[in-house]
Batch of 2 targets.
Target 1
Amino acid sequence: MSADTDTIFCYHCRTHHPKEEMRLLVTKTGKRWRCLKSIEATKQGKAAREAYGKQMTETNKAEARSKARLLNAHQ
Ligand SMILES: [Zn+2]
């Protein structure tokens, strides 16, 4: 009938994408179609957040160490 049969409603974007760009995800609440772009964006966002968190932890550790050194120097 129409090209609509080749598109699937994307749960994430709330719009239709071509079938080839969609992946069926199984969640606690049921099956959800999401596009690869939104899945990749989520993955990258998570990885970026984790990398940032790790970096912050290292920075805090280094800061704590240098503070400890300063305190020791004063004693
Ligand atoms: Zn989408």
Note: The pocket of zinc ion is lined by residues 10, 12-13, 17, 35, 37-38 (CB under 6 Å).
Target 2
Amino acid sequence: MRHVLIELCDDLAQRSDQRVSIMAVGGVDAVRRIRAGEAFDFAVLAADAIDDLVLDWSDVRRLCGQAADLLRRADFLEPDVEARALACLRDAHGLPVALRRWFDLDAAADAGAAQVWTFGLRPYLTRAAAALLPRLAAAEWQRATCLVCGGDAEFAAWSGGERRLVCGRCAAQWSFDPSRCPHCLDANAASRQSFSDPSRLYRVEACTQCRRYVKGLDEDRAGRTVLVAYDPIATIPLDAAAAQLGFE
Ligand SMILES: [Zn+2]
Ligand SMILES: [Zn+2]
């Protein structure tokens, strides 16, 4: 699709004096911006991307059920939210609707149950992202949302002055300006507040503008690359420390 667009733009530029710019944005992000009234001359939307995922529904139900149980036992899930999630898992018609709302970042999605769906669908989204990433222009992507699925970053990896963000849904990784807050995009160094765990391998960079933070691994110190199934869980104490300082 991108090649076709570039050819069409070149052709238009030769026939007229009009310059055309192509902007790559994630489908979910694009839909949100278009709905908010932003003017695009021409948009190609990969709508309903979640419908293309081949899901084993009994496996998805089992994974979501296990996630709800673990999250509840770790006090990350309120009993009423767990009850809603479990009721949804038993509802053959309701579950696909709830998962689509969650994936599309729909305002009607149950925000509490989101972490249950995240764990349940992660193996599927991770496989899909690993297959798609080599075909995407990841180096051109300079946005804070995931270039594959439009999700938010849940983790970061610092390496040699660069920072990669790791998607909290599909585990895709992409470079993002290390001086910018990935939540509010503020680039003022005075708004950054950072602290490390005792090993100094992991650190939190918080933003005093939006009161949100991103935690991550210092790969240079660790001598390894980020382990997406391990590092976010190993750093749960840093989440507690950030919450105590009033960041979310
Ligand atoms: Zn993603
Ligand atoms: Zn911020």
Note: Residues 129, 146, 148-149, 151, 167, 169-170, 172 surround zinc ion (ligand 1) (CB under 6 Å).
